[in-house]
Amino acid sequence: MIRPDAPVLLEIRNLHATVGDQPILKGVDLTLRAGEIHAVMGRNGSGKSTLSKLLAGHPAYTVTAGTVRYRGDDLLALAPEERARAGVFLGFQYPVEIPGVSNLEFLRVATNARRLAQGGEELDTFAFEDLVCERLKVVQMDPAFLERSVNEGFSGGEKKRNEILQMALLDPLVAILDETDSGLDIDALRIVSAGVNQLATPDNCILLITHYQRLLDEITPDFVHVMAAGRILRTAGKELALELERRGYDWVDEGLASSDHAEADATALEVA
Amino acid sequence: MTSTASVGDLVSQPYRYGFVTDIETEKIAKGLNEDVVRLISAKKHEPLFLLNFRLRAYAQWLQMEEPDWASLGHGPIDYQEMIYYAAPKQQAKKASLDEVDPKLLETFDKLGIPLSEQKRLSNVAVDAVFDSVSIATTYREKLAEHGVIFCSISEAVKDHPDLIERYMGTVVPINDNFFAALNSAVFSDGSFVFIPKGVSCPMELSTYFRINSGDTGQFERTLIVAEEAASVSYLEGCTAPMFDTNQLHAAVVELVALDDANIKYSTVQNWYAGDAKGVGGIYNFVTKRGHCRGARSHISWTQVETGSAITWKYPSCVLQGEDSSGEFYSVALTNNLQQADTGTKMIHVGPGTRSTIISKGISAGRSSNSYRGLVQIGAKAVGARNYSQCDSMLIGDTAAANTFPYLRSQQPDASIEHEASTCRISEDQLFYLQSRGIGLEESVSMMVSGFCRDVFNQLPMEFAAEADKLLALKLEGSVG
């Protein structure tokens, strides 16, 4: 839902970042307003996943230039846990397994950290169980998964559902979903997408990172951005995704030379 | 802890038991010889059999050499530079707590072990040992009503010499090993527990050991006897002040379980571990052994080892009675430059004997943490079974973990299972938890307590939560 007067939740300006000595992001600009769904598409290595992890505060990436403002404040100054408590959520492409830590306990501690930051009350185990059982419906998940260790022995689809369950509990204002569709069969894709659609509200925004059109058949984006060589090269409506699907990413690369961005940064050309 | 201390203060304080109590102490001259052994015995007004026990042990010790097979490294220990007896200056044991030096009561208050009538833990009887002597034992009368004897070993020598003579040294012989021989020669105090036939001890028993002097070795001796069908759960806790010298702690613990008896022995060991550079800390060389003498008897060891610069400790079970069983549950955590070489011995002698070993080692900093365990099945142990699981967790990339299992069987149909695993807390796991709003320290603590759950579940309830907190405190600053 596009409302030009909606508040800006996330504003990325000229973001440059490296991993080790390797530049990955080379000037990303992106503005997300409340109520919007954005999709960032691009090949492997284009910098999409870096962007998502960097926004969540992954220690492997170093920001070398640019700013990220979350509701007007400097997001980059916050530790990962502070970002999460403030309402920034990353749905992982490959959620890790954490043996020995009960999923239920993990979800409760995380939910309470967020609730406290929102000025709410902590939930005790009983109140939390009621809440989590209700939210399980969003992703049609079996309560048996609560009793297991975090993601341990979960199938790819179950892990992704567990991610969306976390999103449902943490009530983020900015939800970044990194390749949520990867590894999902068509039924699981529909369930996960339906979950995301239920959670999209006029107050929050969603950033979908994906390779494929098939996710966007289920979750309709307001904007589609194409990323290559660490920058966003094109931005348009949902029709851009269809065009990409038809013409492939080579078409974007061909357009690189004539794009406005390319003139600003010659290094992007060399890498591309 | 003062009332003004905030949670933050507590968390940033790596070792909160490091204070020294300023109290006048009676010490004997440093060094060890036969006269010192005689002097200790004389100070305690011991009967002749015990003096002879000490002298035999001392003679054996002189012939023995310090063991060097463990994966531990430390400078030479000078046994002549140590003091072998130190006691707070007060008349032997007081009839009532009102007469005990308030400074001592205050010390135990500070350690979270209140002894006074009003404040003491309900349903846990405590024997408080300060340097070489026991200063108070709570709930003695109530226990006596059930026929349970719970007192210091010195009192037991006076009041129940027959029991001491019958059982002491029968599980850990005086020449068992270098440190056991030393302990047998110079042991100072410790606890004695006797549960008569058919009695289930009505409350948890606990001994709290406190080293206070900087130049004193601590050599406690604990003996627990459970007669036929008796049962008891016992817990020991230990702390020491921070000194920049190393102090020796060489204890001996003996457990005897007769037919159908059940002894559960838990330890939360938090001796001073030395500083981040490895200066100071306790050298903990301990011999603990249980003897399942009777049929269907059961002995269970649970230990949470977090302190000491060096830990050398193998709580063991000799499973002699038919169908007797032994258990060993251990969490050993090392950080900074701590070294631990710990595990167990399960000696299956009788038929139908069973044993279970669950060991969890956590190594952080530049520490070294080894599990060493022996499972031995004798020729008569028909149908004996053992299950061992040894898991190691590494935090950071400079810590070491080792597993040394020794499996020996003379019984063709015995069953021995050994599983081992090693895992590392990965940056990705920490980031995942952090990205859900959980702080770094809490993330580590969640993973560590998940890793240790099988062992913590074995601890008496009052202490399980305590153990969890203790580990979190110990790991403070080990990541990030």
Give the helix/strand class of chain A. alpha/beta
Uncertain stretches of chain A: 257-272
The structure class of chain B reads alpha/beta
Number of helices of chain A: 11
N-end to C-end Cα span of chain B: 28 Å
Rg of chain B (C-alpha, Å): 22 Å
Low-confidence stretches of chain B: 1-13
Assembly state (oligomeric) = heterodimer
Strand and helix order of chain A: EEEHEEHEEHHEHEHEHEEHHHH
Distance between the termini of chain A: 33 Å
Describe the structure concisely for a colleague:
The complex is a heterodimer of chains A (about 270) and B (about 475). By secondary structure, chain A is of the alpha/beta class. Chain A contains 11 helices and 12 strands.
Question: What does the model show?
Answer:
The complex is a heterodimer of chains A (272) and B (480). Chain A has 272 residues and is α/β, with parallel strands linked by helices. Chain A has one domain: Rossmann fold (3-Layer(aba) Sandwich). Chain A has 11 helices and 12 strands. Chain A has helices at 48-56, 80-86, 103-117, 125-136, 156-170, 186-199, 213-218, 239-247, 250-256, 260-264, 266-271; strands at 8-19, 22-33, 37-42, 61-70, 73-74, 88-91, 98-102, 149-150, 174-178, 205-210, 223-228, 231-236. Chain A has a 6-stranded mixed beta sheet with strand order 6-9-10-3-11-12, sandwiched between helices. Chain A has a 4-stranded antiparallel beta sheet with strand order 2-1-4-5. By secondary structure, chain B is of the alpha/beta class. Chain B has a domain at 11-313. Chain B contains 11 helices and 23 strands. In chain B, the strands form 3 sheets. In chain B, strands 5, 6, 8, 10, 11, 13, 15, 16, 18, 20 and 22 form an 11-stranded mixed beta sheet that branches. In chain B, a hairpin with a 2-residue loop joins β3 and β4. At the A-B interface, α2, β7 and α3 of A face α9 and α10 of B.
